[in-house]
């Protein structure tokens, strides 16, 4: 399993990252401190979540490599993912999307930076 990012997604995410930051691909199921809501729709929802290396990530027990660093996930969220994942950024709409070899997984992938005060 891996994540490929298009150039626009890399350009958008790299300014958020440094050696103290950790990338999460958060399955929005209401479990854990970074999930924003339980699923209330009949669709799968994910967010790109940025935390500091000092913040808790106990629920995130597996990682998926990418060109900009590993994305940590809740292991059971792999059931909603695919082997070859792609994150794209649409500058016109200012939105990210997550897809795999089987098609679109989340067409409005959120971005949340928990390191900002």
Can you characterise this structure?
There is one protein chain. The protein has one helix at 7-13, and strands at 2-5, 21-27, 46-52, 62-64, 71-73, 84-90, 95-100, 103-113. The chain is mainly β and 117 residues long. It has one domain (2-113): Hypothetical Protein Aq_1857, Chain: A (Sandwich), CATH 2.60.300.12. Strands 1-6-7-8-3-2-5-4 form an eight-stranded mixed beta sheet. Strand 4 (62-64) and strand 5 form a beta hairpin. It starts with a strand and ends with a strand. This is Iron-sulfur cluster biosynthesis family protein. Residues 1-113 form the Core domain.
Instruction: Tell me what the CATH architecture is.
Output: Sandwich
Unreliable segments of 5+ consecutive residues: none
Approximate strand percentage: 35-45%
What is the domain total for the residues? Answer: 1
Protein name: Iron-sulfur cluster biosynthesis family protein
Domain Core: 1-113
Pfam families: Fe-S_biosyn (PF01521)
Question: Can you describe this structure in just a few lines?
Answer:
This protein is mainly β and 117 residues long.
